[in-house]
């Protein structure tokens, strides 16, 4: 199926400094695509190019196969939920939501009906007459979403919409947003630097860094099969090492690390190849006595309590460390204890180590 | 009394200041406006409403209307020039902005009589504009630009433009550009987003600028004296004439009318903006 939105070779620079260095991406009808990356990676610039508020220097934007690169924002039926909401402070809640409908000359009875319906959807009914300046952050957020969604946009763009909310509200809104997007079958492009949010909401994650796409994939792909060191490091906690592929046999690949040999599922690397190794702390098992799957020994250096998890840091033979979030089966190892470190081969991700 | 005990002493100079320099003079000329003229002593202590009757008798109607018209036109022109200027200025980079700000403020600190005299050298029959136009052969006879209501308006716009620019600039600078982008994003054209978002959000500054230009122009007399000639004398000029002609009570009555007009205008501003203080001044 033809993607609803496609970007080809997008480049943009501000005062000589390249912000986007050739971006290709596509959004499928009904897809929830997240642009994930650290601040300054160019994701907001990319979103503004999609909305039409910015023109790319090079490259094209396609909507259902049609080139819309030169189309001004008001001619695209895309709407944006801005970071910081940008509600109209001189209008009340209902006027804010009705703004786009009014521009589209929707007759008053229908306009009123759609505003009421959308406000109900974001659980803001009865607030129509409130001034937006009197609303809490979470409420302003809902109005901003309602204002964008009421127009049945072809693509809904969201620029870190939950960035200003506290953790609990953020989780709630995440769930609501997810539900809303799937109920209305909205095609969304979502910006965040919060990897948990990205993993939870998206059908597709685009990991960006310094104006380039580092990896595109489903949440499972980018989390469990990072394509490079940046993605492995940026998404989730990780233990990252450099190693050399020793041999591959029966779908299992042996990788030599400075402190031992770890087994991973065969991921198409040849013997002798340098690879990056990513092991999530959630998969690292620590046992007092040598158990199956353990590949090295170390000494427990510290333990930190975080409520639901307890993070253990183990000092390894070569002086490096490995982190574990798992609880041991029997007695918990104490600081100073010697432990065996193990990991299931299926939980070891390998990636090509880019040499800089 | 209890109240006097709790009265903070350090505020005393301020109250003294207000009473001596504001309340007393104000009370004095309002009082004066109800007295009779006296050629020898200036006024006699006998109550009369004649001064006010004379103002509203019809003899001064034209002058009043002209005053309001010239002030209104000045305000309108200041807005037409000043608002776009402020808007563009608020979008300049920091350095360029401070240079432009300096260019606005320098004439502002120059003696206004001097600046008005400067305009005479521009507009007079052998002034710069006429000389150039004759030189290029566009006109045969020099145009009579000086001593017209138009010249008064030019002079006033030139003098009062900073009073329009500063408050407008202040609101334009505070304007969150993303709200304008939000309007574009929701389907508004450039023009539409200006009228539905930019203009309403900068309105407090515009109104404040209008008050700050309209109110002083009503009472300004030296500009119309120097540039306007006899046909464009304004309220301020008449007051000046009456003071020189030793009719202090009538001058006082005219001043009270002028004050009332200014207060009325500020009242309109308050009603529109819902604010008690002028935007962009504090």
SSE topology sketch:
The complex is a heterodimer of chains A (356) and B (282).
Chain A: E1 5-14, E2 17-27, E3 32-36, H1 43-51, E4 58-63, E5 66-67, E6 78-81, H2 93-103, H3 108-121, H4 137-149, E7 155-159, H5 167-183, E8 188-192, H6 195-201, E9 204-209, E10 212-217, H7 219-224, H8 229-234, E11 239-249, E12 252-257, E13 260-265, E14 274-279, E15 285-287, E16 294-305, E17 310-316, E18 321-324, E19 338-342, E20 348-352
Parallel strand pairs in A: 3-8, 3-9, 6-7, 7-8
Antiparallel strand pairs in A: 1-2, 1-4, 4-5, 9-10, 11-12, 11-14, 12-13, 14-20, 15-19, 16-17, 16-19, 17-18
Chain B: H1 2-6, H2 12-32, E1 36-38, E2 42-44, H3 50-55, H4 61-90, H5 94-109, H6 112-123, H7 128-135, H8 149-174, H9 177-185, H10 190-219, H11 222-228, H12 235-244, H13 248-273
Antiparallel strand pairs in B: 1-2
Helix pairs in contact in B: 2-13, 4-8, 4-10, 6-8, 6-11, 8-10, 8-11, 9-10, 10-13, 12-13
Please explain how this structure is put together.
- The complex is a heterodimer of chains A (356) and B (282).
- Chain A has two domains: 5-232, P-loop containing nucleotide triphosphate hydrolases (Rossmann fold); 241-352, Nucleic acid-binding proteins (OB fold (Dihydrolipoamide Acetyltransferase, E2P)).
- The longest helix of chain A has 17 residues, at 167-183.
- In chain A, the strands form four sheets. Chain A has a six-stranded mixed beta sheet, sandwiched between helices. In chain A, strands 13-12-11-14-20 form a five-stranded antiparallel beta sheet.
- In chain A, helix 2 (93-103) crosses helix 3, helix 2 runs parallel beside helix 4 (137-149) and helix 3 packs across helix 4 (137-149).
- In chain A, 23% of the residues lie in helices and 35% in strands.
- In chain A, strand 12 (252-257) and strand 13 form a beta hairpin.
- With 356 residues, chain A is an alpha+beta fold.
- Chain A contains eight helices and 20 strands.
- The model of chain A has no long low-confidence stretch (mean pLDDT 90).
- Chain B is mainly alpha-helical and 282 residues long.
- Chain B has a domain at 50-116 and 145-273: MetI-like (MetI-like fold, Orthogonal Bundle).
- Chain B is built from 13 helices and two strands; from the N terminus they run H-H-E-E-H-H-H-H-H-H-H-H-H-H-H.
- Chain B has helices at 2-6, 12-32, 50-55, 61-90, 94-109, 112-123, 128-135, 149-174, 177-185, 190-219, 222-228, 235-244, 248-273, and strands spanning 36-38, 42-44.
- Chain B has a two-stranded antiparallel ribbon with strand order 1-2.
- In chain B, strand 1 (36-38) and strand 2 form a beta hairpin.
- In chain B, helix 4 packs across helix 10.
- The longest helix of chain B is centred in the N-terminal third of the chain and has 30 residues, at 61-90.
- The radius of gyration of chain B is 23 Å and the shape is globular.
- At the A-B interface, strand 6 and helix 2 of A face helix 9 and helix 10 of B.
């Amino acid at each position: 199926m033809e993607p609803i939105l496609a970007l080809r070779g997008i480049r943009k620079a501000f005062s000589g400094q390249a912000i986007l260095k050739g971006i290709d991406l596509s959004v499928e009808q009904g897809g929830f695509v997240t642009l994930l990356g650290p601040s300054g990676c160019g994701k907001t610039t990319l979103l503004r190019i999609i909305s039409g508020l910015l023109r790319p220097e090079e490259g094209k934007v396609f909507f259902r196969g049609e080139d819309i690169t030169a189309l001004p924002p008001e001619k695209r039926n895309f709407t944006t939920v801005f970071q910081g909401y940008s509600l109209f402070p001189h209008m009340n809640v209902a006027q804010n939501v009705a703004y786009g409908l009014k521009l589209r000359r929707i007759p008053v009875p229908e306009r009123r009906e759609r505003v009421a319906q959308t406000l109900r959807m974001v659980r803001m009914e009865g607030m129509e007459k409130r001034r937006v300046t009197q609303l809490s952050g979470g409420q302003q957020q809902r109005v901003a979403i309602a204002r964008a969604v009421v127009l049945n946009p072809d693509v809904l763009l969201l620029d870190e919409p939950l960035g200003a909310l506290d953790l609990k509200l953020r989780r709630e809104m995440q769930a609501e947003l997810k539900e809303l997007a799937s109920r209305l079958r909205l095609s969304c492009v979502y910006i965040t630097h919060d990897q948990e949010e990205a993993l939870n909401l998206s059908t597709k994650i685009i990991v960006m860094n310094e104006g380039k796409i580092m990896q595109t994939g489903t949440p499972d792909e980018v989390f469990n099969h990072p394509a490079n060191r940046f993605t492995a490091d940026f998404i989730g906690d990780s233990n990252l090492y450099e190693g050399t592929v020793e041999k591959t046999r029966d779908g299992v690949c042996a990788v030599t690390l400075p402190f031992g040999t770890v087994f991973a599922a065969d991921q198409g690397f040849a013997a002798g190849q340098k690879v990056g190794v990513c092991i999530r702390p959630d998969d690292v098992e620590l046992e007092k006595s040598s158990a199956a799957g353990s590949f090295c020994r170390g000494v427990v250096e510290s333990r930190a309590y975080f409520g639901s998890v307890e993070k253990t840091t183990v000092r390894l033979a070569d002086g490096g460390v490995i982190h574990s979030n798992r609880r041991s089966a029997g007695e918990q190892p104490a600081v100073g204890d010697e432990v065996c470190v193990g990991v299931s081969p299926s939980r070891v991700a390998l990636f090509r180590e880019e040499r800089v | 009394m209890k109240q006097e005990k709790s009265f903070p002493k350090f505020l005393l100079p301020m109250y003294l200041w207000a009473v001596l320099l504001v309340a007393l003079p104000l009370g004095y000329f309002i009082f004066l406006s109800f007295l009779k003229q006296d050629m020898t002593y200036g006024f006699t202590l006998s109550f009369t409403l004649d001064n006010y009757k004379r103002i509203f008798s019809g003899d001064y109607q034209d002058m009043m209307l002209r005053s309001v018209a010239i002030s209104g036109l000045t305000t309108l022109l200041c807005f037409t020039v000043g608002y776009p200027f402020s808007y563009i200025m608020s979008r300049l980079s920091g350095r360029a902005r401070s240079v432009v700000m300096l260019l606005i403020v320098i004439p502002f600190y120059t003696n206004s009589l001097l600046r008005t005299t400067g305009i005479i050298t521009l507009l007079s029959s052998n002034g710069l504009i006429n000389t150039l136009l004759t030189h290029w052969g566009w006109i045969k006879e020099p145009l009579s630009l000086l001593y017209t209501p138009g010249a008064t308006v030019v002079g006033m716009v030139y003098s009062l433009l900073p009073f329009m620019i500063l408050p407008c600039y202040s609101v334009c600078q505070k304007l969150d550009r993303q709200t304008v982008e939000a309007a574009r994003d929701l389907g508004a054209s450039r023009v539409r987003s200006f009228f539905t978002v930019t203009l309403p959000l900068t309105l407090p500054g515009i109104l404040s600028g209008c008050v700050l230009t309209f109110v002083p122009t009503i009472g300004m007399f030296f500009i119309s004296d120097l540039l306007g000639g006899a046909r464009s004398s304004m309220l301020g000029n008449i007051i000046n004439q009456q003071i020189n002609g030793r009719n202090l009570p009538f001058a006082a009555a005219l001043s009270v009318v002028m004050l009332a007009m200014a207060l009325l205008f500020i009242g309109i501003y308050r009603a529109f903006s819902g604010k008690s203080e002028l935007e962009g001044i504090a």
